[in-house]
Amino acid sequence: MKKTSAKKKWGMRILTGLFFIVIAALLFNLVKNIEWAEVKNSLTQYETTQLLLGFVVVTLSYFIFASYDLIGKYYTKHKLPARQILPLGIVCYAFNLNLSAWVGGIALRYRLYSRLGLKTEIITKVLSISLISNWLGYIILAGSIFSLRLIDLPDNWTIGTSALQLIGSILLAVAASYFIACKFSKRRTFHIKKYKIELPSINFALIQAALAMSNWMLMGLLLFRLFPDGTSYPAVLGILLISSIAGIITHIPAGLGVLETIFITMLQGQLTKSSILAALIAYRILYFIIPLAIATMIYAVMEIRAKEMKDVNNENKLIS
To answer: Residue 192: pLDDT band by 50, 70, 90 thresholds?
Structure first.
């Protein structure tokens, strides 16, 4: 059993490495003729007001994502206050985006919540609500954009527009099934291994969808506002959704290279490669790098406070 697990782990590593090589080769082929002076010039064209408004969008997006943990509090009925939950959610999101879901979304969340006194079962439920919420919003938006043919795929792509439309319809059917189950299912409790999962109410499911759709739409809005005129918001959002799932499939942290490859491939007929790359660089700085720097400082404060609390508890034990 251990040998099989080890082989599987090494197989995933090799596959990820191959994906990274392929993406790097494709990206090099796409950007090899780019005039980097034009990219620099495009970056300097952004006005301070535009960048500040972009950071406001980023802030809203991060708070919305962190609010998934707030509805997780409502779902599990744990007693941690919002002032502890929101910073934790923001830190986990920033680490998730930059270092992978296993590091930020899962391992760090278990560490931070357990230090605040939550049991593993409760943390698992909060994590599950966060994941379901995020992907519920994704499949509704992706399903709508794909099924309405709001993006044009390059002619050389194996998957065509009709196939993408079919995928969109399937995604909408999945979302509808979740809502129907929340509304009408008589069985409300399910057991996965030793954990008990309760099906939420339809109102709870609608809140999940609304929050997650808002988050994905804000991400798309940020990118759309960074691109020059010549693109539509639904198209930019649709391409972002495609590149996001591609980044997850390839297991490349932050979708590095994947995002750039897909956007340049799909928009090079509408915009110059240098303007596309400039917008993506600005997007990564605003949505990935700056929040990661802020989240790292917040995390350091949380670790210091946790250590101080541990020291106080140890002193109390010695006194008693």
So the answer is: low
Give 247-255's long-range contacts (Cβ < 8 A, gap of 24+): 248/101, 249/19, 250/16, 250/19, 250/20, 250/23, 251/12, 251/15, 251/16, 251/19, 251/100, 252/16, 252/19, 252/20, 252/23, 253/98, 253/99, 253/100, 254/97, 254/98, 254/99, 254/284, 254/288
Note the pTM of the prediction, 2 decimals.
0.84
Q: How far apart are CA 145 and CA 116, in angstroms?
A: 40
Beta strands (DSSP E) in 143-247 are: 189-192, 195-198
Alpha-carbon separation of residue 47 from 42, 51, 52, 235, 295 (angstroms): 11, 6, 9, 24, 25
Write the pLDDT tens digit of every residue in 262-317. 898 888 888 888 888 889 989 998 999 899 999 999 998 888 887 776 655 555 55
Quickly list DSSP for 196-213.
EEEPPPHHHHHHHHHHHH
